[in-house]
Design goal:
Distance between the termini: 35 Å
Number of strands: 12
Order of helices and strands: EHEHEHEHEEHEHEHEEEHEHH
Structural class: alpha/beta
Number of helices: 10
CATH architecture of the largest domain: 3-Layer(aba) Sandwich
CATH class of the largest domain: Alpha Beta
Strand order of the largest sheet: 2-1-3-5-6-4
Largest sheet: 6 strands, mixed
CATH superfamily of the largest domain: Leucine Dehydrogenase, chain A, domain 1
């Protein structure tokens, strides 16, 4: 049997098994996809324990960066953002990042295909992917809020993208007239200043959906994009990788497969 899994710690809350199981049923594939708790520092040992039944892996934090030195090949996007969320066993480990396009596809579902001013909450791997997405949206002014005034890895990515980025520590004056606010940290960032002045809001984390901030936006009638939608779209690209080895090639009867994946996590058609 072909086996796949999502790895991370903690991982029990992950909806990836439901998404992938729905996709492989719709494709008529008897493949097994599970969630495996693999803490930081244990990825190498886990990989060494696998047999030839394994086809690929989805990776969450803290493993998206830990896997990099273990890859035999990787996409340019992995090099750019410094994180791989997908591994394919094919002549060694091939690394991919589907988070960036997952963000863009989720936003596009809501008609958001451009954003000049972007505000990112958080400084982790998902924030790195958000910077790459912001560049594709045509951003000309990006503010990153975190618990410090700078981050060397995000500065590297911004320079590679020629993306103007300013760093803001919690409590500093918040940016105004923002086109897109993206929260990449679990729950609501502990900030004593308003960060809600934006036309649209993407809440990446979905475990306690809707968050307090997302509910405030929904009640205010503003555009809110759920992290479930990002999860869906990045998973569609992972399924493409696992089945045909290329995220750019659509699945057979892909609309039907995506509809099954949506239903598996309760995300309706838009």
């Amino acid at each position: 049997m072909t086996r796949l899994a999502v790895l991370g710690s903690p991982i029990a809350h992950s909806l990836s098994p439901a998404l992938h199981a729905a996709a492989y049923r719709a494709l008529g594939l008897d493949w097994r996809y599970e969630a495996v708790d693999v803490p930081e520092g244990a990825l190498g040992a886990f990989l060494n324990s696998l047999d030839d039944d394994w086809r690929g892996l989805s990776l969450t934090m803290p493993l998206k960066r830990e896997v990099l030195p273990m890859l035999a090949s990787r996409t340019d996007l992995v090099d750019l953002v410094g994180a791989a969320n997908t591994v394919l066993f094919d002549r060694g480990l091939r690394g991919f990042n589907t988070d960036v396009d997952g963000i863009l596809d989720a936003l596009a579902d809501h008609g958001i295909t451009a954003a000049r001013r972007v505000h990112v909450l958080g400084m982790g791997a998902t924030a790195a992917s958000t910077l790459a997405a912001a560049a594709r949206l045509g951003a000309t002014d990006v503010v990153v809020t975190g618990r410090r005034h700078a981050d060397a890895e995000l500065e590297r990515i911004a320079a590679a993208l020629s993306l103007p980025v300013r760093f803001r520590a919690i409590g500093d004056a918040a940016p105004a007239d923002v086109d897109l606010l993206v929260n990449t940290v679990p729950g609501d960032l502990d900030d004593d200043r308003a960060v809600d002045d934006a036309a649209a809001f993407l809440e990446v984390h979905y475990a306690d959906w809707p968050s307090v901030r997302a509910r405030r936006w929904i009640d205010g009638g503003r555009t809110v994009v759920s992290g479930l939608e990002m999860l869906l779209h990045q998973a569609v690209r992972q399924v493409r990788i696992f089945t045909v080895g290329d995220e750019r090639i659509a699945l057979p009867d892909e609309p039907r497969v995506v509809a099954a994946m949506r239903a598996s996590i309760g995300v309706g058609d838009l």
